[in-house]
Amino acid sequence: MTRLIVWRHGNTDWNAADRVQGQTDTALNDLGREQAATAAPLLAALRPDAIVASDLQRAADTAAALAALTGLPVATDPRLRERHYGLWQGLTMPTIAERYPAEYARWRAGDQAPGCEVESLDDLGKRVGEALQEAADAVPGGTIVIATHGGAARQGCGHVLGWPPAVLRTVGPLRNCYWTELRHDEVRGWQLRAHNTGATTQSSAPAPI
């Protein structure tokens, strides 16, 4: 059975300010580095065989915390970057709503391609999904940790699972430094095994009997 652990990067100052990052190359803040250091031992305990990350520094630096514990190299793949938000990158949501009310309304309603040079969800899902599948194919039967971004993780996992947009829209966003787990076997294909797993969910889980 092949296992993909799709891990969102740690917190950034733009996350804290509710500012749209997209493919802007922002860095982890102190909280983000702490989150990565806290999550890394939990992921190391899963005995990963490979680590792959988006080439944006907030994801690559998150992956580096795990690499430091496992000794594994971090391969980077630009296809794992976050959705490109076009004219919205660097803006807060209130500013976007004020400057681009029609496009913002379409985005809120679930439009796949709302305009303003924002990458379509279909294109995002395909590029991230292809990267996830190739990472899995490279280590058949292994465990691969993918350090990426919140929107990229959701759409990429949805593409791999074959979920339609209406279903995927109901999936809640990943918290910083939390992850989604997918598993694949030859009989049932890809399956969602866990979502929004992290330090808090691990520590609050009941002890095995």
How do you describe this structure in short?
The protein has helices at residues 13-16, 30-44, 57-70, 93-99, 101-108, 121-138, 150-161, 165-168, 199-204; strands at residues 2-8, 50-53, 74-76, 143-148, 179-185, 189-197. Residues 203-209 have low confidence and may be disordered.
β-strand number: 6
Indicate the radius of gyration in whole angstroms: 17 Å
| Global geometry | globular
Amino- and carboxy-terminal Cα gap: 25 Å
The CATH class designation of the largest domain is Alpha Beta
Q: Count of helices?
A: 9
Order of helices and strands: EHHEHEHHHEHHEEH
Q: Residue-averaged pLDDT, rounded?
A: 94
Task: Give the proportion of residues in helices.
Answer: 40-55%
GO molecular function: phosphatase activity
Pfam families: His_Phos_1
Active site: 9, 82
InterPro entries: His_Pase_superF_clade-1, His_PPase_superfam, PGM_Phosphatase
Q: How does this model look, in words?
A:
This protein is α/β, with parallel strands linked by helices. It has 2 domains: 2-84 and 123-203, Rossmann fold (3-Layer(aba) Sandwich); 88-118, no CATH class. It has helices at 13-16, 30-44, 57-70, 93-99, 101-108, 121-138, 150-161, 165-168, 199-204; strands spanning 2-8, 50-53, 74-76, 143-148, 179-185, 189-197. Strand 2, helix 3 (57-70) and strand 3 (74-76) form a beta-alpha-beta unit. Helix 4 (93-99) packs across helix 5 and helix 6 packs across helix 7 (150-161). The longest helix is centred in the middle third of the chain and has 18 residues, at 121-138. It is globular and about 45 Å long.
